[in-house]
Fold each of these.
Amino acid sequence: MRKLFKNKEKKHLKIHIYEWDIDVYVPENEEQLYIKAAENVSQKIEAYMDIYVRQQYVPQKSYMEILLMTLLDIAVTSTEKERVLGFNNFWRRINNIIKNK
């Protein structure tokens, strides 16, 4: 998990996520990371809205359900990336042990 602004200058940023503008303070020189993340979240919300709200014959979901589905999607993706990176690091360490013998 990212350390929250330890020993870093903070910069005020207004980001747009789906239909909302949010004021945040981000570490200096990381503005583009936060803007890109906000765009990613907006795209995921938009996709779930297309599937579960804008379809006529599909049971409608609430905004809360859409946001929770988006949050879960992002968390699963993040967890999977962490697992893959951990798995790759494990094999890298094994290969280093084998090479050094």
Note: The radius of gyration is 19 Å.
Amino acid sequence: MDSSERPDGPRVHVVSTTCQEFEGRRYYLCGKYFQDSASDGEKRLHRAVWIAWHGPIHEDHHVHHCDGDRSNNQPENLFCLPGDEHNREHGYERADEIAEMGRTYQARTKAWHGSDAGKKWHAEQYEKTVAALRATHSANCSCCGKQFEASSTVKNGDVKYCSKACKAHSRRQSGVDDVTRVCTKCAISFLANRYSTRRFCDGCFPARRSRGVLPDSA
């Protein structure tokens, strides 16, 4: 771009290949970007330039170097765009490089996993996994009070019952599954578990009368 075509505003001064200056602050090459970690404010040079020229950067947006050269931090080389678009842009640029890395390391990875060192590592991981799955801790059943060994792999770590029978009994006692039914003999409403086949109220329930729970005159 010709100097006459450049927009008016603060410019980036290139001090050296590892140092650039903007609005009195010096930014040094750190990894792939020029940064100023010692001062307050925006740390990365390309973002500081965009803010000086265009204002705050919207949340989840990135500042992109249009020509791909991260050392060219002049305002006309910068463009702000959503982060996901920016990531895709660089992903397309590196697609061939990433594919080649995959082909290179796939063979090496496969060879290592088949080596003695790899097999030893897998055996160690297997033993750790088995030990974790078999780990237990002592707990008291909330229904019968019996102490039992509970699995430590339960996600919430809250094992309340020693058996399915105790769990079912506790649920029945809680009445969470109770529904209102009408006695087929006397037409009185009563509560019964929704999963039971009971059709009679307490006064007419044959099984309770035969066990002597209720008198015949009831």
Note: The helical segments are 45-54, 83-93, 95-113, 116-134, 164-174, 206-210.
Amino acid sequence: MIKYIFRQNKDYSRFNIIKQFTKDLKLKNDIYILLPFSKNQFFLNFFKRDRIINDFFISNFDTYVYDRKKITAKNPRAWWKFFQDWFNFKFSKYLLSDTYTHFKYWESLFGKYKGELFVLPVLADKQIYYPLDKELNNKKIKILFYGSFIPLHGIDIILEAFSLMEKAGVDFEAKIIGTGQIYSNMKNLYEKLELKNVQMDGKFIDENQLAQEIREHDIILGIFGDSKKAKSVVPNKLYQAVASKKTIVTMYSEAIFEFFDEKDLIVCDRNASALCENLIKLMNNSNLLESTAENGYKKFLEIYDKTKIDFENFINKIDNEI
């Protein structure tokens, strides 16, 4: 049967999706899935590694040093995080990543991986993220960004794009939900730009409320950060948006096109002018807005169903090899 190894039993989307994918599996042997944010548990369960699927998901070292820039590479805490990541990556027989591009980035940090890789995309929990059951009739186009205030998200780009839209006289409403590491800096920028059509109050809301907010907006914004991680992942909010049949606008990255086509979403360069231009283009073309949302939703369902089958086959193969 499937068993889980974790440091803390957190209720988060990726864990719930994995449980949904594996709940009907009939296995001859115990197979363990090591959940993200639990890399220290790999040391404690090292001698089970031939039957552990390690959901590596993110590098702790990369997150703290390069992505969030909380510590430098010379900090002893960074050395420990690097060792944790390297040990997990080096000695896992079975590894999960969210994109192949992200996996190749890990190899650039920790060396060649010699085990078996399965790319398990982030996806979205269909019990929480689903389309509105009625037509949306907002008087103005409503644009939503949500997430932690971390460098990965490029919130400065988003605020500056909104400023350009306001200066151009574009009629819209926008909401930014969340707080975090760089919130005070972004609040200062928000006030400096004197944004009138944008609500940003530094609050988090629960996931069900968030899903409803997504359904009530016309356009969802993705990420616009400049880190290598930002260019290697397909963010949660992208999958959550397309699962809700919403058009998402996000920064171009190779990782996105591992799963999606150009007709499924809107991508742009990482600058405020490009984002502003693409948002105005969408606002002035209701057919494009609707067709992109429809295409993205259909593609999400295809990715979800295919991933479930492929993941079941991956686990059954491991079961037969034990």
Note: The first helix runs from residue 13 to 22.
Amino acid sequence: MDNIDTAMESFAKILVKEYYGGEWLLPSDYADIKLKDGKKVKVKAQYESSLYIQTRMSVDNWDFDLLAVILFNKKGEVIKALEFDTQKTKKGLTKYCDKDSLVLSFIKDVPEEMAEARPNEGVKNIIREIQNIIDSELKNLPDMLPEKKTGMISYYYIIIEDIECKYFYYDGTEESLKKLYEFAGASKAFTCEDNCGGKIIKFLDDNEEVKAGDYFIKDGYNRLFHILTKQVFNEIFITLEDNKCIPRHIHDDYLWNCTEFDGTEKTAEDIAYEFGDDYEINDGVLCFETEEYGDVELAKGDCMLTNSESGEKIFGRGYSVYILSQRSAGGHSSYNEIELA
């Protein structure tokens, strides 16, 4: 089974938070959500494999009360949503695992010898509720942008090239199909079958059907993702020009604090002070030397960008964004919902 990508994992946590309510827990807590009654919820998400599901999700700490599992197919649709009461189901969940890692073998058809790992009680199907959230909350997203609220917005910079993806919208025409083949390239093979005068397009590797209205995403590693609806696409990505897009939710290490050089001595000092006092401004260009980054030259409008997670610095120009919300992601780092400024 493919590992879940960070954008879809983020989407799963948003859906579960919307369903349960409660509040986000801090990154130091292993669970993701705390409910009003004090119970803690851990969220796990995975993509469906073409056969049965026998995948391991590491659970090193069982300090939570409910486990919510969201299973996506490769089009981005939610096909399973289950809630597990860990007190009632932990024994079954860990029976075929080492070191308490979690096998979700009971979600789909499994070999007979693994069937007994399925819990007999403590499992609740919540797919209807999750799907209702998608249907009601996302139906207007193509025409909406997140509302900016005074006092709730932080301002950062990103390097778009670091997270940029390409997307393609398939409209069902012959011309669009040719472009889809070109867009997918070697990352996917298709079959084309005639059916009552029409054509059925499928992925060769998993026999999944491609229909008009589908979206395709290609990331920086040349991996191809298939997303079924425009609503899901707009929930996960922000569109740019030239059929490019970026994730709507990103990790801390993609956020940069910016100090812009505006041509004055004041901003020159702000940028160069930690590298020493030896700097000069020649014809409006700030020049100074650093041991780690070499010789630096910044024209008016250029910036020193400092990574909010690692403290690393780069010199140049980034793209400003609003941080609309921040939450725990996997208990170890923060995830940020962004909007282009």
Note: Confidence is low (pLDDT under 50) at residues 50-56, 95-119, 141-153.
